[in-house]
Design goal:
The chain has 241 residues and is of the alpha+beta class. Helices cover 51% and strands 11% of the residues. Helix 1 packs parallel to helix 7 (146-168) and helix 9 (198-205) crosses helix 10 (209-223).
Length: 241
């Protein structure tokens, strides 16, 4: 399922569980059937009785979830600890290369892999007032390539996050009002939705890479988006592209 189809299905979804099931289904098509979504900063935790706290929605192996919460791994989980410090999706396997992980942090990653959570990746999701959430994807297979799927999974994560907010807190999430987008800004957004880089978009539109970045920056500002993928998601939901 492509991003546009996901958005249309998400728009018709009225329950958080159905929305999460949709995300799991789409991620599974990419080889990443293990998914978790949770808020890392919040005034009041939004929790559902059918899911383990503090995650809002999770379908990781039950045995791993039990072990994780019983041993309070959330306190030393490098994914939880590092997510607020990065601005882009990241691979769990790369954490040890980028940071000097403590023994406890490395143990969480090693045990997660043993539990069947292989080739994990996480997408930081930033909201107003410093709110931070995260969607994590993992695969039970050894031969998947998370780097190759990162762009699409990141887009799905942002869309899920946006749709979740509309269902969970409808009073705070009325229809967005944005300044009109230029045709060039819409063109750039459409190509970003197709997974194209700024350099590739520049070649397609016969403009410089800097010009593409300029249009994307303006579009993100008008849409009140945290990054270009968030901008694409909001533009699609508003039927602007």
């Amino acid at each position: 399922m492509d991003l546009f189809s996901f958005v249309e299905c998400a728009k018709r979804t009225q329950s958080i569980k159905a929305l999460f099931d949709l995300l799991v289904s789409c991620a599974s098509e990419e080889g990443f059937s293990e998914v978790a979504y949770g808020a890392l900063t919040f005034a009041e935790a939004l929790r559902l009785p059918e899911y383990l706290p503090p995650a809002i929605t999770v379908n990781f192996p039950p045995e791993w979830c039990d072990r994780y919460f019983e041993r309070k791994y959330r306190v030393i989980d490098p994914v939880v600890r590092r997510t607020p410090m990065v601005s882009a999706p990241f691979l769990w396997d790369e954490l040890a290369k980028q940071y000097q992980l403590q023994p406890g942090e490395q143990r969480v990653l090693d045990e997660a892999r043993e539990a069947g959570l292989k080739h994990g990746m996480s997408v930081p999701l930033f909201g107003p007032l410093g709110r931070v959430s995260v969607v994590s994807f993992a695969s039970p297979f050894d031969d998947v390539d998370p780097q190759d799927r990162m762009s699409h999974l990141s887009a799905l994560a942002w869309q899920f996050h946006h749709a979740f907010a509309e269902i969970a807190q409808p009073k705070e999430c009325g229809r967005d009002r944005v300044a009109a987008l230029s045709e060039r800004e819409k063109d750039c957004l459409r190509w970003v939705a197709e997974g194209k880089s700024s350099w590739e978009i520049g070649k397609i539109l016969n403009v410089s890479e800097n010009t593409v970045n300029f249009h994307m920056k303006n579009a993100s500002r008008k849409l009140g988006a945290a990054n270009r993928m968030h901008a694409v998601v909001k533009a699609i939901r508003l039927n602007l592209i």
